[in-house]
Write a structure and sequence with these properties.
Length: about 210
């Protein structure tokens, strides 16, 4: 979900410490999805800011607690995250609706989504109000066979016949575009405007054929 990375990681760290005072730095690194050194850096930063207090426990262990200032900051970041989430879903819904209108205007009725993401979930819901049929999702990083109640294909050579692909990846759109362009060069790939705004990987420059 779009949010400043530093603030997002700080919120995750404060949430983890609030839930478990004996959390280890390794656990924090895993939860934040960062290297151990970076997790330690964020932890020290929170201590310097007065958000977290550290006390030593037996057996060379440490306990972490949120300070009153830490609880206040966590509440602020949570509210900011929720506001950003609501804004994302509103913008994403509008962008997907506009994209599906482009598809129907061009006569594209059988659609494949390009990428597992929150945007794909929104597209699945929005498609129910449009004269299109979602056949499934293509994502080369997929490890499961079904997504959103439809097939999920990890290789482009098994894609069914379709009219167009709607790019829904927010993290590796350029890779999906390259794979589909090589395997199906004549297949239209439609890019929602929000993908261009939120993903540096999207590459294509407008809603339409890439």
């Amino acid at each position: 979900m779009p949010q400043d990375r530093e603030e997002s990681l700080t919120l995750e760290l404060l949430t983890a410490i609030e839930a478990r005072s004996d959390v280890t730095q390794r656990h924090l690194a895993d939860r934040l999805g960062v290297a151990l050194g970076l997790a330690n850096s964020y932890l020290k930063r929170c201590v310097r800011k007065g958000l977290v207090k550290i006390t030593q426990a037996p057996a060379n262990r440490y306990l972490y607690y949120l300070t009153p200032q830490g609880f206040t900051e966590k509440s602020r970041l949570t509210g900011q995250y929720l506001a950003a989430s609501f804004d994302f879903y509103r913008r994403a819904g509008d962008a997907i609706l506009a994209t599906l209108e482009v598809c129907t205007a061009a006569g594209h009725r059988k659609i494949v989504l390009g990428g597992v993401s929150e945007l794909a979930e929104i597209a699945a819901v929005r498609s129910l109000d449009m004269p299109v049929t979602l056949l499934g999702t293509f994502d080369h990083s997929a490890r499961i066979p079904v997504y959103l109640g439809r097939p999920l294909w990890a290789t482009e050579d098994v894609l069914p016949s379709c009219d167009a692909v709607v790019l829904t990846s927010l993290t590796h759109g350029a890779e999906i575009h390259a794979l589909l362009a090589a395997a199906r060069p004549a297949l239209p790939l439609i890019v929602p405007a929000i993908v261009l705004a939120l993903s540096a990987d999207s590459g294509p420059a407008a809603t339409g054929r890439c």
